[in-house]
Design goal:
The chain is an alpha+beta fold. Helices cover about 45% and strands about 15% of the residues. It has three helices and two strands, in the order βαβαα.
């Protein structure tokens, strides 16, 4: 079965948590392909492994906040997309 990835908003950031299965090369290769596809739509993938989330949540949150801060510097807020014109 082939899955298609169709983005809703090309400015989204995707946060992925990698568990034990990511110790297997086939899973890593599959994720690399998935990430390339997402990147081709203009999406950014931020990855953390389970160990980071469970043992260093403060750094994980700091990293996510950094991405949000950089995003807000380069994109107007509030977004004017979808605004009706008179």
């Amino acid at each position: 079965m082939t899955r298609k990835i169709i983005p809703y908003n090309p400015k989204l950031k995707i946060i992925e948590l990698d568990g034990y299965s990511h110790n297997f090369e086939e899973v890593v290769l599959k994720d690399e392909e998935k990430e390339k596809t997402l990147n081709s739509f203009g999406l950014t993938v931020i990855r953390f492994d389970d160990n980071e989330v469970m043992n260093d949540i403060h750094n994980v949150l700091r990293t996510i906040e950094g991405y949000i801060g950089e995003f807000e510097k380069t994109h107007p807020y509030p977004s004017q997309e979808g605004k009706l014109l008179n």
